[in-house]
Write a structure and sequence with these properties.
Elements: H1 5-9, E1 18-21, H2 29-32, H3 35-43, E2 54-58, H4 62-67, E3 74-79, E4 88-91, E5 94-97, E6 100-104, H5 113-128, H6 133-142, E7 151-156, E8 159-163, H7 170-177, E9 184-189, H8 198-202, E10 207-213, H9 217-226, E11 232-235, H10 238-248, E12 254-257, H11 270-282
Parallel strand pairs: 1-2, 2-3, 3-4, 8-12, 9-10, 9-12, 10-11
Antiparallel strand pairs: 4-5, 5-6, 7-8
Helix pairs in contact: 10-11
Length: about 280
C-alpha cells in the first residue's frame, strides 16, 4: 500500500508490519508549508512500529538516515551506491543481499536508477517472505513496470513513447529523464504550485525539446529563457502537446510524458491524465 505524506500526517494507530522509506525530497510544500512538517509526516510510517516490525530504508538518503534513529523497528537498509552492505546493495553491476549475489543490473527489465531503488525494496520485501533468488530473478527479467510510472506505451516510427504521469514534482521528472541516454522530447506541465522550474531546465542535457502545457506552462517557458534553452513550445492542452512532441521528434528519440506537476488544473487525477495520454498516443498512427 502506497501512502502519501498527506495520509501519513494524519495517522493515529497505523502500524505496518513492513514499512518502506524510499526517499524524501522537497515536495508538497504548498500543503505542508515547511520542509520539517513534510519530513515528519513521511517519518510517521515508523511512528508506531515495534521491534517485531521491519523498516526498509534508503541508506543513501541522509534525511532518512537521520530521521529513523528513533525507530524501534528492525532496520533493513538498501543502497544503490553500494556504501551500505548490511542489507540490499548494488556493486559492480550486480545486486547483492549482504554477500549473496541475486541478479545482474543488465538482466532487469525496468529502466532507470530510480527503478533500481524500487527493485532493491522489492527484493528486500520478498526476502522477508523467503522468496528464492531464482523466483526474484525471473520476475525482474520480465516485469516492465506499472501504469503511469515510466510506463512504456508504444514505438511509432522508431520513436519510443513513455507515460510517466505519476511524476507530479520536479524530482520525479528528473529521475525519469536520467533513465534514458537517447535524445528526449519531453512533455511537461500541469497545476501551478508556485514552484520555479530552473532546476528542471538545468538538467536538460539530453532533452532536445520540451512541450509545456497547462497552468504552469508560462513558468516553464520563463525558466527556459533564464537557462538559455530555446527548444521549448507552449501549447494549451495535452492533446496539442502530444501532437507537437511527435512533430518535432525524430527516429531514435524518446517521447517522454513526465509532467513535473500535479494534474488538477485539467484532470481529476494523474491516472486520468495518463490514460488520456495513452489514448492520444494511439491516435498518432
Amino acid at each position: 500500500m502506497e501512502l502519501s505524506s498527506f495520509q501519513l500526517k494524519a495517522i493515529e494507530d497505523f502500524k505496518p508490519d513492513i514499512g518502506v522509506l524510499i526517499n524524501i525530497t522537497e515536495a508538497h510544500l504548498d500543503y505542508h508549508k515547511t520542509m520539517d512538517d513534510y519530513v515528519s509526516s513521511k517519518l510517521n510510517i515508523t511512528k508506531h512500529q515495534s521491534q517485531d516490525d521491519v523498516l526498509i530504508y534508503n541508506a543513501d538518503d541522509d534525511i532518512i538516515k537521520d530521521g529513523i534513529k528513533q525507530s524501534e523497528a528492525q532496520l533493513t537498509p538498501f543502497s544503490v551506491s553500494g556504501l551500505n552492505q548490511h542489507g540490499l546493495y548494488v556493486s559492480e553491476g550486480t545486486i547483492y543481499e549482504r554477500q549473496d549475489p541475486i541478479v545482474k543490473r543488465e538482466d532487469i527489465a525496468l529502466p532507470g536508477d530510480h527503478n533500481l531503488e524500487n527493485v532493491l525494496v522489492g527484493i528486500a520485501i520478498a526476502k522477508r517472505f523467503a522468496i528464492s533468488n531464482q523466483k526474484i530473478k525471473s520476475v525482474l527479467k520480465t516485469f516492465t513496470g506499472v501504469k503511469h510510472r515510466l510506463q512504456y506505451v508504444d514505438t511509432i516510427n522508431d520513436r519510443q513513447i513513455f507515460n510517466d504521469s505519476k511524476a507530479t514534482n520536479i524530482q520525479a521528472t528528473l529521475k525519469a529523464i536520467n533513465a534514458f541516454n537517447q535524445p528526449i522530447v519531453l512533455i511537461a506541465g500541469g497545476l501551478d504550485r508556485g514552484v520555479e522550474f530552473d532546476e528542471l531546465i538545468q538538467s536538460f542535457k539530453n532533452v532536445k525539446g520540451c512541450i509545456a502545457y497547462g497552468q504552469s506552462a508560462d513558468k516553464m517557458c520563463e525558466a527556459a529563457i533564464r537557462q538559455d534553452f530555446h527548444s521549448i513550445y507552449k501549447v494549451d492542452n495535452l492533446q496539442k502537446a502530444t501532437n507537437k512532441a511527435y512533430e518535432i521528434s525524430e527516429r531514435g528519440d524518446i517521447i517522454l510524458f513526465s509532467p513535473a506537476c500535479a494534474s488538477w488544473d485539467q484532470f481529476k487525477s494523474f491516472e486520468e491524465r495518463g490514460d488520456m495520454f495513452i489514448q492520444l498516443v494511439h491516435k498518432l498512427y
